[in-house]
Design brief:
This protein is an alpha/beta fold. It has 19 helices and 18 strands. The strands form six sheets. Strands 3, 4, 5, 8, 17 and 18 form a six-stranded mixed sheet that branches. A four-stranded mixed sheet has the order 10-13-9-14. Strands 1-2 form a two-stranded antiparallel sheet.
Length: 478
């Protein structure tokens, strides 16, 4: 029997579903797309197969299988089956979707999903009818907002909040760190609180090991992580109230150039691998081997560090006890890692909101919405946290889990996470920014010293802005 209900009864059932857990009925809703066409009619399609595109980590750690199995059991009486789309996690819906090759539901970062809005490749969603709606903050929902002809629509459902975190090996701290590396006596090692101390500690490790071991290591050419140094001193990606004015590129604005100095200084404690992607690829195994003390990456890869430590011969319990994650350290106000005389500022980092979207080309939008509702339910997000170590966008779970999960949610609300602008032009940012960061690292490691002065750093950062602007507006990259 088809499930078509009047709007009033729909809302009654939604309330009941929250109370007694009737997930199947909870998603029935009527929604309009940006042109006023009905897509979510309230008729749950029967006997169909949904192709789900998830990220590789969710597959490798077994989460996707658990999600699909649970959903399929819940909806088997309707003949609805969700399957792995078996596509690359970065599959381009714009290319394959119109020809029937794309997924029905896809999980990606907000900037990756929202680039599909212009071509109407993903559907605006009736988000108020989803069980997770009231548990996700406005700032997270805003990552998926787009305004058309004066009306704002939402094109994605937040799953987890991404921001860089510092990962470190607690068992590699000096045995006397409480006396030698805890100046403020707050019980927290200085090198995980402040970049100046992490910089000094890294120097010490490299010197004492004759270059065989390192402290902090990170591929500095990675624009996602490197951009935070510019933001912390007043830089930004695009201007405007909504951060989407691509005529105003701002990495050099205010004192953003100071971020370039920080990157150059950090490179001095590393090696030439920081100018390309090698450190990103090997950080899991090198930390497991004890070659690196710390790195920076996102919350959802914690399990990969644990896995590598187990592969290196440690027990899982030991790995979980000693692979630690903390919020990113504070930066010196001076913009100089060798000068903390002016005190510290909290670091502003580039972040994002990963979530689900529904393809405009799906033949079963109501079933797809049912899947998204199920996948963002308390039970499944809790399981995702357990298996993948994500930081959930659901405030109820973030509060329950506490610790960094709550901190990251608070960071998003406070604005210290600079959410990647959901505009197509963001794609033109990365090459100029990453090339510049690689040059900064190479400059100090090879002794070229072309960026040794403040004036050279300013001009270099201004040139990044110009290259981005030209790529968008002069070279037709928008």
């Amino acid at each position: 029997m088809k499930k078509t209900l009047p709007a009033l009864l729909t809302h009654v059932i939604l309330i009941l579903s929250l109370i007694i857990g009737i997930g199947v009925l909870g998603i029935i809703a009527t929604g309009m797309d940006a042109e006023g066409n009905e897509k979510f009619t309230g008729d749950l399609e029967h006997n169909i197969t949904l192709r789900i595109l998830e990220n590789d980590t969710a597959k490798e750690q077994g989460y996707l299988k658990e999600l699909l199995d649970a959903f399929n059991e819940e909806y088997k009486e309707y003949g609805i089956t969700a399957v792995d789309a078996n596509m690359d996690q970065y599959t381009d819906l714009e290319t394959g979707g119109p020809y029937g090759y794309g997924p029905d539901v896809l999980y990606q970062a907000n900037d990756a999903l929202m680039k599909y809005v212009d071509g109407k490749h993903i559907l605006p969603l009736p988000i108020k009818n989803l069980e997770c709606y009231s548990y996700v903050s406005d700032n997270a929902w805003q990552a998926y907002h787009s305004t058309t002809q004066g009306q704002t629509f939402t094109f994605g459902v937040p799953v987890n909040i991404q921001q860089p975190l510092l990962y470190y090996r607690a068992d590699l701290l000096p045995k006397d760190w409480q006396t030698t590396w805890d100046d403020d006596k707050n019980g927290i090692p200085d090198m995980i609180e402040n970049w100046t101390d992490l910089f000094r500690f890294s120097k010490t490790i490299r010197q004492e090991s004759n270059g065989a071991k390192y402290g902090y290591m990170k591929s500095l050419n990675d624009g996602y992580f490197a951009s935070g140094y510019f933001f912390s001193y007043g830089g930004y990606v695009f201007g405007g109230e909504d951060g989407k004015d691509t005529t105003d590129v701002g990495f050099s604005k205010n004192e953003g150039y100071r971020g370039a100095k920080i990157i150059r200084q950090l490179a001095s404690i590393m090696n030439l691998e920081c100018t390309e992607d090698t450190i990103t690829r090997n950080s899991y195994s090198r930390m497991a081997q004890g070659t690196y003390f710390a790195t920076m990456t996102t919350p959802d890869v914690y399990t990969l560090f644990v896995k590598e430590m187990v592969n290196a011969g440690y027990t899982e319990a030991y790995a979980k006890e000693n692979i630690k994650t903390v919020d990113v350290p504070r930066l010196p106000k001076s913009g100089d890692l060798e000068d903390e005389s002016q005190g510290f500022i909290d670091m502003t980092v580039m972040g994002g909101v990963n979530g689900y979207a529904i393809s405009s080309y799906t033949k079963a939008p109501n079933a797809a919405l049912a899947f998204v509702n199920f996948a963002t339910s308390y039970k499944m997000i809790q399981k995702r946290c357990e298996l993948l170590g994500i930081s959930p966008a659901r405030s109820d779970l973030a509060e329950e889990l506490g610790g960094l999960n709550e901190v990251i949610n608070n960071n998003l609300d406070a604005g210290s996470i600079y959410v990647m602008p959901s505009v197509r032009a963001l794609a033109q940012v990365w090459t100029p920014l990453q090339t510049f960061c690689a040059k900064l690292a190479d400059d100090i490691l090879t002794g070229k010293n072309a960026f040794a002065t403040e004036d050279a750093l300013k001009k270099g950062t201004e040139n990044v802005d110009k290259q981005i602007y030209d790529a968008i507006h002069t070279l037709g990259g928008s």
